[in-house]
Task: inverse folding
């Protein structure tokens, strides 16, 4: 994919659902929702495709921020949203199928929200 075939648009939390609905109205399909911890913030990318052109809507939040679900627009988004809740500890409100923190079973609660240092051996295989 050429660089010009992908666009990232920063959006506010307040406009996320409306912008997602607009993407659907324009014929885009939801490809994935991905979350990444960057310092103390979490970057969440909503990735859409139309005619092999990717468009990303991006929000950046703190862990204690509640974000709205887009599962009312794209039903299958509930999978990604439960994953974000369970692995990163970010609360998603209004998920159409909410597993209530039991989508994944992990040894460490919200494992992708913790920062492991070299001195911390509790996460290493024994």
Result:
């Amino acid at each position: 994919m050429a660089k010009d075939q992908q666009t990232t648009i920063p959006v506010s939390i307040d406009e996320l659902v409306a912008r997602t609905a607009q993407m659907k109205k324009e014929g885009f399909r939801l490809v994935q929702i991905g979350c990444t911890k960057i310092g103390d913030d979490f970057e969440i990318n909503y990735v859409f495709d139309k005619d092999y052109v990717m468009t990303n809507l991006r929000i950046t939040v703190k862990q204690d921020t509640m974000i709205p679900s887009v599962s009312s627009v794209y039903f299958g988004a509930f999978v990604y949203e439960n994953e974000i809740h369970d692995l990163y500890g970010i609360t998603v409100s209004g998920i159409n199928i909410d597993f209530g923190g039991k989508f994944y079973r992990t040894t460490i609660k919200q494992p992708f929200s913790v920062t492991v240092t070299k001195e911390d051996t509790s996460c290493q295989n024994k």
About this structure: The radius of gyration is 16 Å. Strands lie at 6-10, 29-38, 41-50, 53-62, 66-68, 91-93. The mean pLDDT is 85. The chain is about 15% helix and 35% strand.
